[in-house]
Amino acid sequence: MPLQFEPYRVLINEAKDQALLIKSHNLFANNRSTENSLSVTSNSKKENKEGIGRLSDCVSGLQASVQRLKPIACCFNVSVIFPSLQPRLHSISHQTSRPFSCILHLHHLIRLTKTISVNIQGHDTSIAIDRAKPAFFLDYDLHGTSLPNHARTAFLLNNFLKLFEPLKMMKKWLFLFFFYCCLLTAKKGFYIPGVLPVEFHVGSSVEVKAVKLTSIRTQMPYDYYYLPFCLPDGELQYKSENLGEILRGDRIVNTPFALNMDIPVKCALLCAKNNVKTKLSAAESDLLIEKIRNEYRVHLLIDNLPGTTKTQLENGRDAYMHGYALGFVFLNNHVHFIIYINEVSTETYRIVGFEIQARSISSMQYVPDSGKLCSWNSESEAQPLKPGVVNEIYWSYSAEWRLSPIRWASRWDSYLSMRSNQIHWLSIVNSIVIVVFLAGFLGLIIMRTVRRDIAYYNRLDESLDDTMEESGWKLVHGDIFRPPRRATLLVCVLGTGIQLLGMALVTLAFAMVGMLSPSSRGALMSVALFLYCFMGLFAGYFAGRMYKTLRLSNWKSASLKTACLFPTFLFVVGLILNILVWENKSSGTVPFSSIMSLLSMFFCIDIPLVMIGFRFGFRKKPYHHPVRTNQIPRQVPEQPFYSNIVISILFSGILPFLAMFLELFFIFTAMWQNQFYYLFGFLFIVFIILIISTALMSILIIYFLLAVENYHWWWRSFFVGGSSAFYVFAYSIYYAATKLEIVGVTPKLLYFGYTILISVTFWILTGTVGFYASYFFVRKIYSSVKID
């Protein structure tokens, strides 16, 4: 009866001592004893006596396993063959009448072997070892017996992974497709509307809502009714807002503007009963004058579409600004709405645009008509506001409806494509040039130097001249992986950095493909907060594995510190800023209910996920260090001036900052000047370039540090990687001084506090990138040389 022999795959599990499970189909014909052999052949070039000794131990481990499992009648001949050495043969035999699973402990064999050859009754097969797989089983069934649970699970998982093998072959095309999507969405802000369109019939009511009052001079938002605007009939109705809207300071509320679809309004008075003017008290007049001088703007909504004021740039292109100005020297007491509509069917329309034109009209120029209607002289004077006295004014509005060919799904395009993309492409080209220059410099200086060093060190080991001394980075091999000071704190910030990096990448990816629609107000911030909490699982895993690698043991305390370190910093700074905002009665004050929601997310989602991930990471095998650490620390020689930590930080942060500073300008403009920004394709590309440039600069600085025999690289790599945050902070101060003209002590404290939050977050994220790039670089170069 011919032997049925079906190899499936080899899974190598380094975390569990690299075991190989062997089973065979119908190994025994007619219940007769059969002799089989398993030969393990290594074609590695690294052949040495130490390897043979380890393989001998492996075979002994095989014999012990077979005796424990009591296999049926068979004889295993295990041959370890090296091409240039005499083969060693070990045989083991044992009799039993039960099926069995034989476990061969390979130990370090996988480091020497690329192919396993199996011979059973003259049937040969070769299995190539795939080191990229996390675990590996070669499965055969004995005598029709079912697989054990762990083998069955591995087999099913293995076949499931086969479904994704075509993706590996397509990875180049997938990368090109993804890069094309980045460029496509970068060229024009792409988004998915996110809400269903609302259709209005002619004459149906169209509600105008107020959002808030903002100023680029104070950065202090206020509720719409913080100023003495006319109140609507009935109660104020505030919209239920999401967490992102609350943190932005939005307070969406109804207004007294009465509009009906496609019915124009020439002039209508607000809160003027019997044509009586509205009297502003001296305090109200002073408050309005103060807000006008601080350049406050009013933000309104129609059908979730923000009202804008059309302006013209120097090149003649139209641009749109959020809301309308409260006033200049005079009070803008009349608001003219221009609402663009698209006809869906007969007498059914959708709103596709919303513009506001604010005017100042003296109360002396109004001609009240019957009811709440009015008119004014064409050459009307402006409405002045006199401080310290009672001012009498009229509040009024008008509206016109204009047909537009713009489709509802494209109504945000005019908002999101205000500026020319040329400056963004210049930013991308500038960033790519910097990265190419940096990569070329790194390849020229480091790669050639490292290869030369490795070749020199290996020749030195083979040389018979024992008087030659080592020098350079190899000399510190006994201390290079010595745990740093405050190792637990390092692990905590690294876990936080992984959490922030994952949050940023996924959020930008979602925004880039249009899943965070601009019509979903506050969605970007809400998604970022939830992603930060759920990324705690990855933060805990990476922190836990590094914690075990550094030979630390109190993982529960460390996991709690990892989960609490950064959120505690945010909470303390945010609470101080919230108190400052609350004292000024700003709508930016985070209410107590929202604070409790944030704390619930932190305690119920973030902390448990971080601790779970930390536990899994701590149970995993630690990162492999190719060299041993000496018991006595080596003294660091006198260092040259360029290895000073301050010089390293100042130098290493320049190029990553230059790679992103143009895009940083647009981000700051959107944040602090209430401008639109939705070019997340550009932002995603710049972010990837930032990560690459940070990693390259960190490797470069750490190599030069090791070259002068300084092995204190752990914290240095983190500070060097995060050094661009220092330039982000400096640029923020420069931007405030030259672009914002912030007035008042409290607004300056707020800007400074928010800048600290942004800079520290950026520092932890980029510092983590720099650390892991340096860590894997150090492991790589020290695994390439022979160490006695």
Descriptive notes:
This protein is an alpha+beta fold. Among the domains are: 14-162, no CATH class; 200-416, no CATH class; 486-624, no CATH class. It is built from 21 helices and 23 strands. A five-stranded mixed sheet has the order 4-3-2-6-7, with helices on one face. Strands 8-19-18-23-11 form a five-stranded mixed sheet, with no helix packed on it. Strands 9, 10, 13, 14 and 17 form a five-stranded antiparallel sheet that branches. Helix 9 runs parallel beside helix 18, helix 18 (680-707) packs across helix 21 (745-782) and helix 20 (724-740) runs antiparallel to helix 21. It is found in: Golgi apparatus; Membrane. The chain crosses the membrane at residues 423-446, 489-516, 522-543, 564-582, 594-618, 641-670, 676-706, 718-737, 749-778. Its main location: Golgi.
Briefly summarize what is shown.
By secondary structure, the chain is α+β, with helices and mostly antiparallel strands. Helix 10 packs antiparallel against helix 18 (680-707) and helix 12 crosses helix 14. Residues 1-164, 184-191 and 464-469 have low confidence and may be disordered.
